C-alpha cells in the first residue's frame, strides 16, 4: 500500500528540527500498524506524510502507485477525500453540526447528493453503534461517542487507508478498549490498511505490526 | 451542507453575528438617510428655483438698487394730525405703501424690447415685483397724554409699551388712557405680470386653485397665492388693498412644483395695474428670458449685459448657485458632514466585520484544518467562511434598509419646512408650523406682527422689507429610490464580502496538518 523511500522532513523555523531522517518504510495492503515512540520523536510527522497533509523535504511517499510528494495540491486534496480516512486524538468534530452531518462532511467533496449522503452517514453511524444519536451535537456526546462519530466520518467514504493519531489518547481504559475493538472489527470487515499512532502499549500490542520512531528514525519493534 | 453549516455557524456565533449585522445596518441606514435627505434638499432647491423664476427661464435681468436708497420702502411718518381722531382723542391710522423691493430698482421697460431683439432669445417676460406694506393702528392723543404725565399720572407707562402685552391678534391695547397703542403691519409681495405672456416667467409654474387666473385684457384684477390667501383669510370675490387701492381678487393659484409649495409672490396683478399703483409707469424690475438652446445661454447673457450696462444679468446656473448659497447651511451640512459621517461609520462597520471574521477563522483553525484534511478543497473552505460573512452583510443590509426607511419616513413625517429664497433671502429649518417665521417672515396678520413696530422702536421697517424677498417654503420630502435601497444592500454585502475575502484568505493559508495540532 505504502512505499516510503528516503523520506526526510526538516522544519526550519527558529530552530531547525529534523523530524524525519531518511525514512525507508513499506506498509502492505490490509496491514494494521501501530507506531510508538517518545514524544517529539516524529510520529505525527510521519502520519502527515502518509496522509498527504504535508510534503516531505525530500524522498518519495508512494501510495498505491502515486507519489504523494509530487502530486499537485488539488490532486492531493482529491486523494485525501477519496482514499484516506483520518481519526484524531481530539476527535475534531464540527461543533455546530449534528453527528450525522459531521459524518456527511466526508462525503461533501466527493459530490455525493444530499439524500445519499444522509443515508450513508446514518448507516456509518449505525455501524459504530450510534444510530440513535445521529441528531445530537458533539457537545451532547461523551468522548468515546464523539470518537465513534469521528471513526464513522473516516470510514463513510470507504477509504483504503485509515490513519489515526492517538485515537484513544483522550479516553478512559474501558472506552479505549471499545474503540480499539471497533477498529479491529472494521479493519477485518473492510480489509482496510490501518496506521495508528499510540502511546499506549496495550493498544499497540493488538496490532499486527509495531513500529518505533525516535529522533526521526523508524525501526521495527519486537 | 453549505447552507446548513452556514446557518449553524451564524446561529452559534449569535453575538458576533448580531454585532456585525447591527454595525452594518446602522452604517447602511445612515448612508440611506444622508443620500435621501440630500436628494430631498436638492429637490427643494429645484422647487425654490422653479417657483421663483418659472420653468424654462435661462437668464434673468434685474437692476440693483442704490444702497439704502430710493428703491426700498420709505418709512411711515405720522404726525399728531395724521389719521382721524375719535372723541377721546385716539387717532386711527391707515397707511399703505407699494414700493420696489429693497436692494433692487426698477428700470425702463424698453429693456424688454432690447432683450427680445438679442439673437437666440426665444422669449422674454417682464415683471414688476413690489412690496406692499400697510400699517394700521391706533395712537392715543398725545396732547392729552402729556397733560396726564405732567399732572403726575403714570410715568412708567410710555407710549407704545402697551403693544407688547396685547392679546393674541396683536391689535388691541388701544387708548385706555394709560398711553397704550396698537399697530398692525401687513406686508406682502405684489408681482405685476403680463397675462399674455405665459411661455416664460413666473406664470409658468402657476396653476389655478380657485376662481380663475389673470387673463389678457384684465386691468383691475388680482390673483393670490393660495397659501397667502388662506393665511390672510381672503377669498375669491373679496378685495385686497394694494397700495391704497382695493383690487378685486379673481382667483387663487398654487405652484405646479409641488403640493403646498408657495409661489414666488403673494399677489399677482396685471403689469399695467402694478405700474399704475406704484406710480412707476413703464417700469419693470425683472425680465425673464428664455434662450433657444442651452449652449447659447452664456452668449445671450453676455449680449444682454453689453446692451444694458446697468442691469445685472444672471444665468440659470448663477441662479442655482444663488439658491445653493442660501440653502448652503442645509445642503453643506448634509453633503459634507453627512458624507463624512457615513464614510467613518461605514469604515468602522467594515472593520468590525473583518475583525470578527478573522478572529472567527483563528478560533476555528483546527475545525477548518480538519475539513481540509478530510478532503475539502481550499475553495470550498474559503467559500464557507466568505459565505458566512456575506450572509451577515446581507442580514445587516436588510436590517439597515428597514432602519433607514424608518428614519427617512420619520424625517418625512416630521414635515420639516425648508425655506429657500433666491438671492438675499434666508433659509431656515423649522417644525411643521414654522413657515411663518421663514426668512424674516411673511408677516401674517396676527401674533408675530406685534414684535415689528413695538420692538423696532419706530425705526424703518427693515424686517418687513426683507420679508418681501421671494421666500418659498418647501416641505422637505426625502425620497427613497430603488437605487438607494439597492446601493445600501450592496454596500452591506460588500462589507461582508470584504470581511469574507480577508477571512477566506486566512482560511486558504491554513495547512491541513493543523488538524493534528494538539489543543490550542
Ligand atoms: N510545524 C512544525 N514546525 C516546526 N517544528 C515542528 C512542527 N511540527 C513538528 N515539529 C517538530 O518536529 C518534531 C516531531 O514532532 P511530532 O509532532 O512528529 O512528534 P510526535 O512524535 O508526534 O510527538 P507527540 O507524541 O508529542 O505527539 C518535534 O521536535 C516537533 O517540535
Ligand atoms: Mg503527535
Automatic annotation (TrEMBL), chain A:
Residues 2-222 form the ABC transporter domain. One of its GO terms (molecular function) is ATP binding. Keywords: ATP-binding, Nucleotide-binding, Transport. It comes from the Bacteria. The keyword Transport applies. This is ABC transporter ATP-binding protein. It comes from Isoptericola chiayiensis. The lineage of its organism: Bacteria, Bacillati, Actinomycetota, Actinomycetes, Micrococcales.
UniProtKB/TrEMBL annotation, chain B:
Residues 341-408 form the ABC3 transporter permease C-terminal domain. It holds the Pfam family MacB_PCD. Residues 19-306 form the MacB-like periplasmic core domain. InterPro entries: ABC3_permease_C, MacB_PCD, Macrolide_Exporter_MacB. It is a multi-pass membrane protein. The keyword Lipid biosynthesis does not apply. Residues 63-105, 147-180 are annotated as: Disordered. Its main location: membrane. The chain crosses the membrane at residues 337-358, 394-418, 480-502. Belongs to the ABC-4 integral membrane protein family. This is ABC3 transporter permease protein domain-containing protein.
